[in-house]
Every structure is written in C-alpha cells, then in structure tokens.
Design a protein that fits this description.
Blueprint lengths: L1 E3 L2 E3 L21 H27 L2
Amino acid sequence: MKRKDGVIVDLTSGAPISPTDPLPRAQVKGWVKAVFWGLRVYIAIMLVLVVIGFAKGSF
C-alpha cells in the first residue's frame, strides 16, 4: 500500500485471471464462417482492381 495525498492507494493487481492464462478462442461456425471468407475474397478482388487502376492510370 502507498499513501498519496492522505489517501491509501492499493497498487496490487486485482485481476481475477492471471495474465499468463490465455483465453480460449471462439469457434466461428456456419454462415458466419462463409461471410468471413466472402469478405476476404471481396478484399482481395478490390486490391487487384486498385492495382489495375493505378497501373492503367499512370500511363
């Protein structure tokens, strides 16, 4: 404990879980998994189109 401005402050950690224990990862299932894959494909296509646009626009 440390005294600061006349108030006792407890500087010890009050975390209920020790910081060394990792939390388990959530399982993504069903249509949510398909949506995430669709989003990845969409982003990849958009990146290709942006590269093509910059390549054609620079000439």
